[in-house]
Amino acid sequence: MDIEQFRKAGYQAIDRICDYYYSLQNRPVISKVEPGYLKQHLPLTAPEKGEDFQVIADDYQKFIVPGLTHWQHPSFFGYFPTACTFEGIIAELYATSTSNPGFNWTSSPACTELEALVMDWAAQLLGLSAAFLNSSGIGGGSLQTTASDSALISVVAARSLYQQTHPDAKLEDLVIYTTTQTHSLGLKAGLVLGLSVRALEVKSEDRFSLKGETLRIALEEDEKQGKKPFILIATVGTTSSGAIDNLPEIKAVVKDHPSLWIHVDAAWAGVAMSCPENREKCFLNEINEFANSFCTNFHKWGLVNFDASTLWVRNRKHLTDALDVTPPFLRSTHGDAGTVIDYRNWHLALGRRFRSLKLWFVLRSFGAEGFRAYIRRTIALNQQFADFIATSDILSLVTPPSLALSVFRIEPKRNSPDQVALSTESLNSLNRLFYGRISARDDILLTQTVLNGVHCIRFAVGAARTESSHIQAACDLLHTEAKLAIEAWEPTTTEDSK
Amino acid sequence: MDIEQFRKAGYQAIDRICDYYYSLQNRPVISKVEPGYLKQHLPLTAPEKGEDFQVIADDYQKFIVPGLTHWQHPSFFGYFPTACTFEGIIAELYATSTSNPGFNWTSSPACTELEALVMDWAAQLLGLSAAFLNSSGIGGGSLQTTASDSALISVVAARSLYQQTHPDAKLEDLVIYTTTQTHSLGLKAGLVLGLSVRALEVKSEDRFSLKGETLRIALEEDEKQGKKPFILIATVGTTSSGAIDNLPEIKAVVKDHPSLWIHVDAAWAGVAMSCPENREKCFLNEINEFANSFCTNFHKWGLVNFDASTLWVRNRKHLTDALDVTPPFLRSTHGDAGTVIDYRNWHLALGRRFRSLKLWFVLRSFGAEGFRAYIRRTIALNQQFADFIATSDILSLVTPPSLALSVFRIEPKRNSPDQVALSTESLNSLNRLFYGRISARDDILLTQTVLNGVHCIRFAVGAARTESSHIQAACDLLHTEAKLAIEAWEPTTTEDSK
C-alpha cells in the first residue's frame, strides 16, 4: 500500500468508525455467533498472492464486526467499562504511525518525556501526593498494560526488596496477601512467580472490606509459622462489589509490620478520586501516607483507550533494583549518566508502546473539569439504577451501591411477617435462572458474581454513551425478566414451596 | 469530541501521517533534543478546562514529533527494525475504535477466533509443524506484547511443569539457562521470577553459537551440585550478532535430559523462515522436532506494527496449567464447556488488545509471496553492505553477515606482513571513537555492541523504506567517518604507535 492508497483506506476507516458509532445503539450488545463461526468464512492459510485492501477492509465489516461484543454500547453494563474515546482513538493512530518502542530515553525521547509528564498530570488529577510524582525524582509513575501487570511488577519489586532486607528468606516461605475479593490478578501473580497466596477472609457485614484485625491475626499466625508475608494487595473498589479495604485500619497494623509492602489496586475505582467528594471513601489520605504502590486503569472508567494502566511507586529505586538489565547494546550516554528515566527498567518487557499520547490527548481535550463531569455523570446514572432497585418489590441490592457499580439480585420482599424468607440456596437457584434469562438476551449485557456464597448480578455503568434513558430501559427490562424468572422458577425443596 | 469532530480530526491525522511519510527521508533520523526538553513546552498539570482539539493535534506536531527517533527512516540501521506498515496502522485504528479487551471468548468472540486462525496462518508461513497449530487442539499460538513476555511466559510454564514432575525441587535450586549472547530477556525473566540464571559461554570461533558440548557439561556440573536446570532459552538470531545456537547438537543433549524445556527465541530472525532458503540455517527442522516453545516478533522484521510477538507452544496445557485463574465473574458457558480458547490463560495479564487484526491485514495485503519478497529484499540490502565491507581496507566484518544483520568494526588491513596488528584494546579504543563519531550524526542510526570483549558496530537492515541508495550512502558515510576516526585517533600505548 502506498501513501495515497493509505490516505484512501484511512479516510474510509475513519468514515466507517463514524458509521459504527452512529449505528451503535441499534446493534445488539452481544455477539450471537457460535464457537468456530469465523473459520467457516476464512481460509485456513494466508493467501499466496496479496489481496486488494478494499476486500480486506470489507471483510472486517462482514466477518469481524458481527463477532464483536460491543463494549461501547450504551446498554453494556458488564464487567467494568473499557474506555474508548475519539481522542484516544486518534492518539493511538498517531502512536502506531511511527511505531517506535520507547524502551529507553534515547530510543525516542518524546515517548519517555511525555510519559513522565502526563503521569504527573494524572497523579495530581487524582490527588496523589507529591511523593508519587516523577518530578520528585524519588517516586514516579509509568504506564503499564493492565492492572495485572501493575500488580505483578509491584509484587516483584516487593519481593526483591524483602529479599534484600531478609537475605535468609526462602522463596518457599514468602506469601502474597490478598483478600477473597481481590481480583484474580493476585492469584495470577502468585502463579506466575511460584509464590504462595493467602486470601484473607472478608465479611458481608463489613461490606467485603478487609479489616485491620483480620490482617493482624493473619500476620501473627504466619510469622509464628515461619512464613514471610511480604506484600498485601489491598483493593479500592473490588470487581465483584466495589468493596474498599479498610486502609486506615490496615495502616495501623502495618506500623508494627513495616516490611509489608502495600500495593493498592484501584484498577476501576481509582479514577473516581479525580472528584474531591470521592476521596475520603477511597481513602486517598491513607494511600498518600503509606501505600508503596498504587494502580488505577484509565482504560476502564478513565476515558483512555485500552491499554492504559497507571502505576505509581513511592520509590522508583525499588522497581529498578528489581528489574534493571542493561546489556551493552542498550547503553547510552544519557542513560549511563542517570539524567533520564529508562522506562524499560520500570516494567516487565523491553519495548513499550507510546501509551502516554492517549492520556495526554484525553486529559487536554476533556480538561480536569470535563473528566470529573464524566465521572459524576456515571455515578449519578448508577444512583438512578440503585434508586429503582430500592423501590422494586422483587429486586434488592446485595451491598450499597459503590460509585458506579450496583450489585443486586431477586429477593422478593415479604408481604406479611409470617411469610417465610427463601433460603440462600433457593435464592441462588432463582437468581441463576434470572441471570440465564438476562444473558440470553442480546440487547443488554450484565455479568454475574458470587459474594460469600450469594449468587448476584453486577450492574456497572461507564460506557461513554450511556444516558438516563438506557438506565431506565435496563430497569424495565430487568423488572420484566425478574418477574418472568419468578414465574418460571420451580422450587425444588420443601422450604422453597412454602 | 462528537462524531463529526472525530471525522475531521481523523482525516487530518491521516493526512498528517501521509505528510510524515512523504517527508521522512529528509528528516534527521535521530532526535537531537536534550533531556528535559518537553517540560519547557508543556504545563506541569492538566488543564482545568478542555482545550480545542486542533491545538492538541498541532502540539503533537510541534513538540512530540521533534522528540521522536524515526525508526521508520530509511537510514535507521540501529537495534532491530520495528515494523510499521500502512496495513498495520489501519488495523490498529480499527482495533482501538471498539476497544474491547478480549480476555476470553465470550468477551468478544471475533478477537479470540481471529487470533487462533491467523496464528495458524503465521505458523504455516514460517514452516512450523502442525503440532504448533491451534487447529491441532494440543499445541497453539497466541500474540504477546514482546519477546520478553513470550520468554517469561515460557519460563513460567516450564517451571510449573518441572515442579509438577519434581515436587521436591526448591525454587532456590532451579536454574534458567541462557548463553552469554542471549537477549536481556533471559536475565530479566530470572529477575522477575527470582530464579538463578546461568549464561553458558559461547565462542567467537563458533560464531557465538551455543555448542551441545557446552550444554552437556553445564547440565552435568549443575545436576551434580543439586541444581535443577529446567529451561534453556536458545536463540535463533541473537541481538548482538545474529548468532544461531546449534539446535541439532542441543537436540542430541536434550535426549538425555528430557525435563529440560527448550524455548527458542527467534524474536528477530524467525520471520526469515517464511523463505524456504533460510530454514536450514535457522534449524526449522529441529524447532519442529523438539522445541517446547517458539517465539518470533512480527513487529520487528515481519511488517506488523509493534506490538506483535507470536508465541507457539507444543502443548497448550502447559500454559493453562500454569496460568489459569477463573473467578466467578469470568465464568462463561462456552469457557466452562472447554469448547473455546480463553486466551487470558495463555498470557500474563487478563485483558488483551485485539492484536491479531494487524497480523491478518498484513498477511492478506502482502500475501505470503509479498512477505517473502520483503524478507529477501532486506537480506539482499544487507549483502550489499557486507560486500562493501569486504572490499574496504579499513573496515572488517566481525562475524559473517547473518540474514539482514552485519557486525563490523575498523580493523585496518595490514599492507605488509611485517606490519604489526593492533591489540584488541587499541582496536576497541579506536572503534569507540569511531562509534562516537557516528552516533553524533543525525542522518544515520547504528547501535554498538561488545562481542566477547570486542567492541563492534551493528548494521541492521529492515526499515521498509530502505533502498539500495540508502545502503550506498551509509557505506560512503561510514568509510569517511572511519578514515576521520583513524586520523583523529591518538594511540596511547607503545604497541599502538608501532
Automatic annotation (TrEMBL), chains A, B:
Q: Known InterPro entries for this protein? A: Aromatic_deC, PyrdxlP-dep_de-COase, PyrdxlP-dep_Trfase, PyrdxlP-dep_Trfase_major, PyrdxlP-dep_Trfase_small, Pyridoxal-P_BS
Keywords associated with the record: Decarboxylase, Lyase, Pyridoxal phosphate
Q: Which Gene3D superfamilies match?
A: Aspartate Aminotransferase, domain 1 (3.90.1150.10), dopa decarboxylase, N-terminal domain (1.20.1340.10), Type I PLP-dependent aspartate aminotransferase-like (Major domain) (3.40.640.10)
A single BP term in Gene Ontology: amino acid metabolic process
Where, per the database record, does this protein carry N6-(pyridoxal phosphate)lysine?
Answer: 300
What Pfam families does the database record attribute to this sequence?
Answer: Pyridoxal_deC (PF00282)
Q: In which family does this protein belong, per the annotation?
A: Belongs to the group II decarboxylase family.
Listed name of the protein: Tyrosine decarboxylase 1
Q: Which organism is it from?
A: Hypsizygus marmoreus
Q: Which GO terms describe its molecular function?
A: carboxy-lyase activity; pyridoxal phosphate binding
Q: Name one GO cellular component term.
A: cytoplasm
Q: Which cofactor does it need?
A: pyridoxal 5'-phosphate
